Amino acid sequence: MFILEQKIPDINVMDPKRMYGTNAVDYDIRIDFDSLRKKRTNRAIEMMKKHGLGALLCFTGSKIRYVSGTYAALSKGDALMLYRYCVLTEDGPVLFETPGTDFICAKKAAPWVTDIRPAQVWKTGAGTAKSMMTKKFAQSVIQVLEEHGVRKEKLGVDEVGAWSAYKALMDEGVEVVDGTPALDDAVIIKFQEELEILKQACAIADAGFDTIERRLRPGIRENELCGACANTLYSLGSEGFVHMTFASGGDTNPFRRWGPTDKIIRYGDMVIIDLIHRYNGYWTCFYRNFVCGGKPTKEQKQLHQETYDSVYAAIRKIRPGAKTSEIAEVWREKESWESQDSKLKTVSLMQFGHGVGTWDHEPPYITLAYSPEHPVEIRKNMYLAIETYAGKWGQREGARLEENMAVTDNGVEIYSMYPFPDYFFE
Q: Which residues pair with 279 in a beta bridge?
């Protein structure tokens, strides 16, 4: 019997154009979220052990979601409101959820978390009530540590801001240490499922920018544009956005890094927008610039080109084995007057690189403030954002651009695919 063998060519799974549909279907594997949850939990446990920790205590929503696969509204997610927390041991996550309907919904929605308990919520307490509630909180955590045999081992915590919580644990003899290095090591390399979600998140942001560009006209207010964009994002499944950086006209230099206001956009204004939205737990963070009326001046074109060149000068340096120090060096001669990171030795975010994942700023970080002295090696499957600014003191406006990308074997694949307007290059 003659059998025709057909060789299947290798598929570039990193290609942002090779993207799954967003719905669950019976005819296509798509994103296996059960597999992703298990991979993330197991990696967090692996890094927890590597850093010599018996357990991890997470307060921030992004970290709780990473280790347990559970969701909270943005108002509770990363504001450190102390409504919920999670203890991760070698045996898996124990989730402490806000009592009442949130607790019931978590039990119903997340059957893979086999141990969900009512949280000891004390944020609204005051005086002696706060002292009492933090003690009850400490006892709830210690009970988990004892049940899993790690009561005398180090407990890593994901936030330094919840001092009253940590003091209550230390008063009970728990050795509390910084858990962020272990969590940073867990999130820095992305699983393929995570990259697939990040593709989809960027596709939604692309649609948001398209809405903005189509609606931009003289007389529209910044917050109107933001509202139109938000409608597009939510319609496509976005979970929300923590911030939409928006500046127009003279507010682009010095760059006013606020959200949109009721400011009226005028003909000829440069408009700078950063879309930071979350989809299936993963964020985007990339900028585009537009000119109201679509006819940029010579100076606006020069600013855009300078920013474009500095972004892509850094991107061309990114490959497995490269160091964050050599990437940051491309910005040394082109630091904007607003940054001066190399002189001040602090981070302005104006010429900057960072990871993106379950939060919009994750390691590795790329900056002239400290990357030259503390370099980090770039590895495959890191997911990065590169953002820079151009604008000199005395100029009427400035420009800011940012790209999101996955690190491949030979360089990067750009996932932020919304095009730069042609009029900047004509």
A: 282
Spatial contact of 179 and 57, defined as CB atoms under 8 Å apart: yes
In tens, the pLDDT along 223-262 reads 999 999 999 999 999 998 877 899 999 999 999 888 899 9
pLDDT per residue over 261-319, tens digit each? 999 999 999 999 999 999 999 999 999 999 999 999 999 999 999 999 999 999 999 99
| Length, in residues, of the chain | 426
Quote the CA–CA distance of 352 and 367 in Å, as a whole number.
5
From its phi and psi, is residue 22 left (phi > 0), alpha (psi between -120 and 50) or beta?
Answer: alpha
Six token digits for residue 248: 């127009």
- Give CA–CA dist 375/355, Å, rounded: 15
Extract the runs of DSSP E, i.e. beta strands, from 121-239. Answer: 155-157, 176-178
Threshold 0.85, pTM exceeds: yes
Closest CA relative to residue 222, chosen from 268, 288, 271, 295? 271
> From its phi and psi, is residue 381 left (phi > 0), alpha (psi between -120 and 50) or beta?
left
User: What 8-state DSSP symbol labels residue 364?
Assistant: E
Q: Are strands 116-118 and 270-279 parallel, antiparallel or unpaired?
A: unpaired
Q: Which residues contact 358 (CB under 8 A, 6 or more apart)?
A: 62, 63, 65, 66, 187, 281, 282, 283
Question: What single letter denotes the amino acid at residue 344?
Answer: L
Q: In a 10 Å sphere around its CB, with 0-12 CB exposed, 13-18 middle and 19+ buried, how is residue 298 labelled? A: exposed
Is 26 buried (19+), middle (13-18) or exposed (0-12) by CB count in 10 A?
exposed
Radius of gyration (C-alpha) of the chain in whole angstroms: 23
Least Cα distance to 138 among 151, 124, 120 occurs for 120
Structure tokens at 158: 């994901």
